[in-house]
Amino acid sequence: IVFAMHNKPVQEEIEKEPAVNKTLVAYFSATGTTKKVSENLAQALNADIYEIKPLKPYTQADLDWTDKNSRSSVEMADHNSRPEIVSDDFSVSKYDTVFLGFPIWWYIAPTIVNTFLEKHDFSNKRIILFATSGGSGFGKTIDNLKPSVSESAEIIQGDILNSNPSVEQLRKWAMKF
User: Fold this and answer.
1) pLDDT tier for residue 164 given thresholds of 50, 70 and 90
2) For the chain, how far is it from start to end, CA to CA, in angstroms?
3) CA dist., res. 151 & res. 37, Å (int)
4) What is the DSSP letter of 148?
C-alpha cells in the first residue's frame, strides 16, 4: 500500500508536461548595432527575441551626444526619464532567463530600458545584461536598473559585445551564465 501511494504522485509527475526553461533575448537598438548582436544571440540560444521599440523613433539628431539639447542627452541627464515604448500584449511571464541588450549611453543603459523593465513583472527572473558601446563600459548600469525590477529579480552583468560576434562565439559566451 505504501508503495502504491508513493507511486501515484510520481506517475502524475511523469504524465505532466516537462517544464521548459524558456529564454528571451530582449533588446533596444538605436542604430542597428545592438539589433544584429541580439539576433545572433537569439539564434545561438534558440531563444525568442523581442525588440524594445520607442513610441517615437530616435533620429540621428536625437542621438547626437555632443549636443546637450539632443533628445538622448536630455533623457540621460534625467535618470527619472522614461521614454514611451510601443504598447503591445507581450509578456515576460513564460521566460525564466532574459538576455537584455542595449547600447551604453553615458556609462549606463538608456532610460528606455528602465521603461521596459518597469512595464513587465521580472519577479524571480534572471536578467543577463549585454551591451554594445563605442568605448565605455557598464559603469553604473546595474545600479540604475535594479530599482526598475522586483527584489526577486537577479540582474547579472554580462559583457560589452562589440565587433558583431558570430553565432558560435555568442553560444560559447552565453554558456558562462
Assistant:
1) confident
2) 45
3) 28
4) G
